Amino acid sequence: MTGMGGLNPTPGALTVALVQQQVPSVAEPGDIERVADEVAEMLVALKTATPAIDLVVFPEYGLQGLRKSAWVRDDMMLTLNSAPLDTLRAACRRANVWGCFSLMEANPDGAPFNSGVIVDGTGDIALYQRKLHPWVPKEPWEPGDQGVQVCDGPAGSRLALIICHDGMFPEVAREASYLGANVLLRTAGYRLPFANAWRITNEANAFCNLAYTASVALAGHDGNHVASMGQAMICDHEGTILVRGDATADRVVIGEIEPARADNARRAWGPENNIYQLGHRGFTALADGRNDCPYTYVADLAAGRYRVPWEAEVVITDGTADGYGPPRRPGDPTDTARGAYPR
């Protein structure tokens, strides 16, 4: 069900607007404040035009853009208390609508974090997520250090925020779902060559976890990059695409999510209730199934000894080929390197 783009909302459903935001052109700190004003105006206008909207999702890099020249400047980084975030929080409060936003977050102890927030209709931050897996070697961000976060959202939803490349790791979507999320938001700045990988991972993350996925990327370009792809989509818990966008910049894709359908499937399905069955292997033959861990990579990762068999042959293991400085060595007090971010 789509609700005809929010015109005919289904009682109890979550109406989501996914904004294929034009890649912002950002060169100076003042540009970020300008973009925040534009995003805030769009959010309020969307809620005014379509009152049924419960949640508006803007893409990764929606405030600070994609130019590497801006990424390497400390004065272009934000915090949760920065004025542009205050502007967006005030817009959610003014429109009484939830919003999802991206920020590159200042980090005095290393490289900045690639972060995101979900703001509720009163302007409070309901969820704060740091990207776990920066898109290396292209992105210089510090890997997230807070795990996966979830929060209660509108219409019976339990929300998680999966930031761009994190969605390529099935473990991230599984962790969010294991923590109870039934709606997985995914924001990105991906370019058009990733459209197929984007689609299949959004579908798989939904089906494998009996969750809805709602995903959107930047669109267009700022004259300095290959075009970002847009490609907003909502998938239901069976992995079926309910609504889908294209590459048009600033197109808004609106669709419905029924969190109760995912919740019911997780409780009532037999075949393909995979998130439950992962820890209850073979319950037809063995009461309650096996709940051991037969996966070597999981045990090794938990023990801090994750190594692929071809570890010594991997060619690219830092960002120097992409123009970044050497990475810092954690735990070494003599190492003051911050990669692209000199002290």
From TrEMBL:
It comes from the Bacteria. Keywords: Hydrolase. Transmembrane segments: none annotated. InterPro entries: Aliph_Amidase/BUP, C-N_Hydrolase, C-N_Hydrolase_sf. The keyword Repeat does not apply. The gene is amiF. One of its GO terms (biological process) is putrescine biosynthetic process from arginine. Its EC number is 3.5.1.49. GO terms for molecular function: formamidase activity; N-carbamoylputrescine amidase activity. It is an enzyme of class 3 (hydrolase). The keyword Chaperone does not apply. NCBIfam families: PRK13287.1. Residues 14-259 form the CN hydrolase domain. This is Formamidase. Residues 318-343 are annotated as: Disordered.
